[in-house]
């Protein structure tokens, strides 16, 4: 299960303002008419209920929004850079990888359609129109667009389930999930049959709830034994835990 990804995002730079002067047939020395640069595009992360994991980020790591266009004469402003929207599963947590000290948490996307701007586009530069004054009626200066730096972020999927099923390997977690829901996890007599979390929906009358089977945790998992303990993030949202024990 692809439930964690590290990516680099960069918003678009702002476009440059332009130095330009009005030129008409009977106005040879018109005033400044340089337009502003367009703002850079944003990088936006959006939760999508149709996506189940983060596999889309497995092969590509760097994501860039478009730059804003430069301004033009006749006070024409540059076009804003196109936003880049990255879709992730509902339940994705966004963390700042480059955070030094403090909490790296940025946001928790718990609802479908929820959006987060992880990199805001740079502001466009001002054209020379803005620099005209009573003492300088023909300014030959304009601003450059605001540049943006790359940011490193971590995406972590934390499954949204009502009940988590936990326990040592091979104690019957998959069997319980298969009996209680329509899920069909792999069931065998050897340890670590389940290598990733498995979801199932159980129905009781007119109501339903989601169960999540978590791979077996063994002594020393925090040292990397077995499958480690990374899967524990998937029980952080559960309302109830069922801890299965071997009755033999």
From TrEMBL:
The keyword GTP-binding is annotated on this UniProt entry: yes
Keywords, alphabetical: GTP-binding, Nucleotide-binding
Pfam families according to UniProt: GTP1_OBG (PF01018), MMR_HSR1 (PF01926)
The OBG-type G domain, residue ranges: 161-248
InterPro entries hit by this protein: G_OBG (IPR031167), GTP-bd (IPR006073), GTP-bd_Obg/CgtA (IPR014100), GTP1_OBG_dom (IPR006169), GTP1_OBG_dom_sf (IPR036726), OBG_GTPase (IPR045086), P-loop_NTPase (IPR027417)
GO MF annotation list: GTP binding; GTPase activity; magnesium ion binding
Domain Obg: 1-160
Alphabetical list of NCBIfam families matching this protein: Obg_CgtA, PRK12299.1
Family affiliation: Belongs to the TRAFAC class OBG-HflX-like GTPase superfamily. OBG GTPase family.
UniProt name for this protein: GTPase ObgE
UniProt source species: marine sediment metagenome
């Amino acid at each position: 299960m692809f439930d964690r990804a590290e990516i680099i995002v960069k918003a678009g730079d702002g476009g440059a303002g332009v130095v330009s002067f009005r030129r008409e047939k009977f106005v040879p020395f018109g005033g400044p008419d340089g337009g502003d640069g367009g703002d850079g595009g944003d990088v936006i992360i959006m939760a999508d209920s149709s996506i189940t994991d983060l596999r889309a980020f497995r092969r590509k790591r760097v994501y860039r929004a478009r730059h804003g266009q430069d301004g033009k004469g006749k006070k024409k402003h540059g076009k804003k850079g196109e936003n880049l929207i990255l879709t992730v599963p509902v339940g994705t947590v966004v963390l700042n990888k480059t955070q030094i000290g403090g909490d790296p948490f940025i946001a928790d996307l718990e609802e479908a359609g929820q959006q987060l701007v992880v990199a805001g586009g740079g502001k466009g530069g001002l054209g020379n129109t803005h620099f005209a004054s009573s003492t300088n009626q023909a300014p030959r200066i304009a601003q450059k667009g605001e540049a943006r730096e790359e940011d490193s972020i971590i995406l972590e999927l934390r499954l949204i389930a009502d009940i988590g099923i936990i326990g040592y390997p091979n104690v019957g977690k998959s069997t319980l999930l298969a009996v209680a829901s329509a899920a069909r996890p792999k069931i065998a007599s050897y340890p670590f049959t389940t290598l990733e979390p498995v979801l199932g929906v159980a129905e009781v009358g007119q109501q339903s709830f989601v169960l999540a089977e978590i791979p077996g945790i063994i002594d020393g998992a925090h040292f990397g034994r077995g499958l480690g303990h990374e899967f524990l993030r998937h029980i952080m949202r559960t309302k109830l835990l069922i801890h299965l024990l071997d009755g033999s």
